[in-house]
Amino acid sequence: MTVAGPIPSIVGALLCQKDSYLQTLETEVVSCDEYVPPKSLQTNVKSKAKKSIDSEKGSDSGTATPSKTWLIEFADSVLFPEGGGQPTDHGSITPLTSSDPEAVLITNIQRHGLRCLSFSSKPLSPGTRVRQDVDFNRRWDHMQQHTGQHLLSAIMDSLDLPTLSWSMGAAGEMNSIEIPRKPSHEEIKSIQDRCNQCIRDNVAITVETPEEVDGAKKLPGDYDKDKGVVRFIKIGDLDYNACCGTHLKQTSHIGLILLHHTQSIRGTNSRLYFSAGDRAIKLAIESINSIRNIAVSLSSSTSLTDVQNNVQRLTDSYADARKREKKMLAEIATYEGARIRSVLESGKNAWSYRATDGLDFINLVAFEIKEAARDRGVVILVSGEVKTAGSIMIIGEKGMVESMAAKVKEIVSTVKGGGKGEKWQGKVTEWKKGEIEALKAAVENP
Ligand SMILES: [Zn+2]
């Protein structure tokens, strides 16, 4: 239902874009229509389609609630629609003239062509006066990350490290930019210093909306640049870029830019992680606290060098312990091999059991006895404990291996295995009570 009313502001000239520090606005409903998901989104079969619904429906997403969603357009908006790499605002709409002045929570605002549409769980009649309130902590965080990225990319551009793409991390997480090569430590330090110098210099960030726009500038396919307003963000002499997002007014409001680590991607490209402003401080505090916790569990001082040295020492001693354990296991296997050979020589079937070490130990023992077992009798090697998984190996004369494998399948309920001739191997999903004992008895008293 749309009635004649004020002509709504278009995306590009919304109040949230003209004054991104405004947190509240009294405005009026221009249109309100029930949201009908596009046909491709109406089936929840494909996970991709479901994801699209999630991102379009905001707070209504993910559940099969039959509740309706309404798309509301206002005369103007302090609530920013998703765009320019910046996520949707969150906020609320409070009707001012209705008998039901309860605030409606808004967690999804989207640009459709030139229109800014809020996804609402309640319909509001055109003409209704409302107050919009922005979740400004969320917006401020987005503006710090987003404006921080403009500054970071501008500085890296001047060092011949152009930004190929960027991604804002979810609340409290790192952001990243993709660049064509891995920067050196010196470059990272220099970029970090130059970013923070520019923040200290408190450079003004302004917006220009030229009448004529170079057709080569990248704009979304469904944005009509002839009817719309294309915004260029200018950071002093450093940056001049078309962008529809919300930005800080001066570089000092970014607070700081913290460069994290790099990661190699797509051949020689590199992803540089960063954070800005309050988010960077929060991440740094979390990091400091983690190091402290690691230091406490290592009984180390909190000096970074001490913590690193202690972690290295722990890793080294773990590797040594693993080596010693391996050697010891091989020694035990040698003794077990000798014992089995003497059992075989006495004309009996041999039973070998070890609760731990699984196939590692079984293979070591099998190596010790394979020749003795080929000549006479049969050996069954077993690992695992009740209620856990395990392994079984049978080696020996062909006919005896086959009949022993048949017995194993009779006794062990969860065994699966196979093999031909002189060796049979099986996996036990879970040993049941009494099965190991029954198997031992079957081997030793055939
Ligand atoms: Zn921007």
TrEMBL record:
<keyword id="KW-0479">Metal-binding</keyword>
<feature type="domain" description="Threonyl/alanyl tRNA synthetase SAD">
    <location>
        <begin position="230"/>
        <end position="273"/>
    </location>
</feature>
<feature type="region of interest" description="Disordered">
    <location>
        <begin position="43"/>
        <end position="66"/>
    </location>
</feature>
<dbReference type="GO" id="GO:0002196">
    <property type="term" value="F:Ser-tRNA(Ala) deacylase activity"/>
</dbReference>
<dbReference type="InterPro" id="IPR012947">
    <property type="entry name" value="tRNA_SAD"/>
</dbReference>
<dbReference type="GO" id="GO:0005524">
    <property type="term" value="F:ATP binding"/>
</dbReference>
<comment type="similarity">
    <text>Belongs to the class-II aminoacyl-tRNA synthetase family. Alax-L subfamily.</text>
</comment>
<protein>
    <submittedName>
        <fullName>ThrRS/AlaRS common domain-containing protein</fullName>
    </submittedName>
</protein>
<dbReference type="GO" id="GO:0043039">
    <property type="term" value="P:tRNA aminoacylation"/>
</dbReference>
<dbReference type="InterPro" id="IPR051335">
    <property type="entry name" value="Alanyl-tRNA_Editing_Enzymes"/>
</dbReference>
<dbReference type="InterPro" id="IPR018163">
    <property type="entry name" value="Thr/Ala-tRNA-synth_IIc_edit"/>
</dbReference>
<keyword id="KW-0862">Zinc</keyword>
<dbReference type="GO" id="GO:0004812">
    <property type="term" value="F:aminoacyl-tRNA ligase activity"/>
</dbReference>
<dbReference type="GO" id="GO:0046872">
    <property type="term" value="F:metal ion binding"/>
</dbReference>
<dbReference type="Pfam" id="PF07973">
    <property type="entry name" value="tRNA_SAD"/>
</dbReference>
<dbReference type="InterPro" id="IPR009000">
    <property type="entry name" value="Transl_B-barrel_sf"/>
</dbReference>
